[in-house]
Amino acid sequence: KLIKDDIGLYDTLADCYMQIKQYNKALDSINYVIEHVSYKYTDAYFKRGMCKFYLDDKAGALADFYKHREIINTYLEDQNRTEYKALYPMYTNKNLENVNLWINACRN
Fold first, then answer.
1. Which residues contact 63 (CB under 8 A, 6 or more apart)?
2. Rounded to two decimals, what is the model's pTM?
3. What is the rounded CA–CA span in Å between residue 46 and residue 90?
4. In the predicted model, what is the mean pLDDT of residues 80-105?
5. Cα 83 to chain center, whole Å?
């Protein structure tokens, strides 16, 4: 059974592949993360959207960016209801602005 640290390794591997512009290999790692992630808030859809964008799959990228925006909105709503999350913010409105920029880039 995978633990959170194992998922983190695949996430880091995806980041490394993205840094050297090997987006197909990054996609493999990110897909693994998405298939096995058990926590609610993840950047994997955002990263996968970036890979798809650079691989010229704008429709696929757009779908992933919409999913990531949904995750951020859910987090921001949950954060308003939970004191603990307000103390340890993961996402902010800046993250929302960023994903909206990528969504606009896909539409152009």
1. 49
2. 0.85
3. 14
4. 83
5. 24
**In the chain, what is the straight-line distance between the N-terminal and C-terminal CA atoms, in Å?**
42
Q: 64 near 46, Cβ under 8 Å?
A: yes
Residue type, 13: L
Q: Which of 25, 27, 33 is nearest to 4 (CA)?
A: 33
Beta carbons of 10 and 29 less than 8 angstroms apart: yes
Q: Which two tokens stand for residue 25?
A: 């290999």
Q: What tokens appear for 63 in the block?
A: 């779908």
Give me the phi and psi of 38, to 5 degrees please: -115, -5
Give the model's pLDDT for residue 106: 94
85-93: list long-range contacts, CB under 8 Å, 24+ apart: 90/41, 91/41
Q: Is the dihedral of CA 25, 27, 33, 36 positive or negative?
A: negative
